[in-house]
Amino acid sequence: MIHWDQSRTLLSFPRVGLHLSWYGILFSLGIFLSSFSGIKLATALCKDREEKKELRTSLENFALGALLAIIIGARLAYVLFYGGSFYFENPSEIIKIWKGGLSSHGAVISVVIWAAVFSRLHIRKLPMLSVTYICDLCGAVFGCAALLIRVGNFMNQEILGTPTSMPWGVIFSNGGGQIPRHPVQLYEGLGYLVLSCILCRLCYRGVIRLGSGYSAAGALIGVAVIRFCAEFFKTHQGAWLGEENILTIGQWLSIPMVFLGVGIIWIASKKK
């Protein structure tokens, strides 16, 4: 068994009141690595030199906006789906994201909305930047961000797993009792990374064309399946559904993602 008693703070500067958390650093690093990977993939597949320069600049701007969109969307979704009545009774707590509480489903929705807005603003200058192209690109490279965010959850000792007798069970000192638990944060994060690597490889090899919709659809379906399965190894989360419910709120939110992904594949196949 593994005993986990890691502090949430990575670096602390008491004199200036600055404290850098593991989660914050890993979140930022994950977004950076996924953005970097996306730009590298897109420019590698772009053959025109001038277009490649313009594409790089545009995607860098998209990444900056996506970071803000992810934070806002993930926070609002957490408040709506997991916060229960707490945030309605204490609305000032909504902006206090440093206390934790982000939803990956909200992050997905916010990125899609931002992709639609960004495409509308830039597609005349760079016709390849359709909503589908941007979403395909995000679907192919989201893995680093997803993995490191879940590692951040692990460092924070949150989203705890169910009890296990497996030798890799983790005893969390903060709220987990002296019970070995599944490191479900790592299961989920690694699943996302593997999925993303497969999609990225298929796009790079030309098996999946960016802009076809297949990469985004594959990511939606894959993420939903991984999340749905991971929920069986998590302790109860959220205030809207009790522990007596067959499915968790995370599983209910994952089901529409599968239908959306299948719908995108069906539409894409009709365009061939």
Q: What would you call the structural class?
A: mainly alpha
Give the C-alpha Rg.
Answer: 20 Å
Please describe the biggest sheet, giving its number of strands, its sense, and whether it closes into a barrel. 2 strands, parallel
Quickly count the domains. Answer: 1
GO molecular function, one term: phosphatidylglycerol-prolipoprotein diacylglyceryl transferase activity
EC number: 2.5.1.145
Subcellular location: Cell inner membrane
InterPro entries: Lgt
Short descriptors:
single chain, 272 residues, mainly alpha, two-stranded parallel sheet, two-stranded antiparallel ribbon, 60% helix
Brief write-up:
The protein is mainly alpha-helical and 272 residues long. Helix content is 60%, strand content 6%.
Task: Please characterize this protein's 3D structure.
The chain has 272 residues and is mainly alpha-helical. The chain has one domain. Helix content is 60%, strand content 6%. The chain contains 9 helices and 4 strands; from the N terminus they run βββααααααβααα. The strands form 2 sheets. It has a two-stranded parallel sheet with strand order 1-4. Strands 2-3 form a two-stranded antiparallel ribbon. The longest helix has 33 residues, at 49-81. It is globular, with a radius of gyration of 20 Å. It starts with a strand and ends with a helix. The relative contact order is 0.13. The model has no long low-confidence stretch (mean pLDDT 89). It comes from Chlamydia trachomatis serovar L2b (strain UCH-1/proctitis). Belongs to the Lgt family. Pfam families: LGT (PF01790).
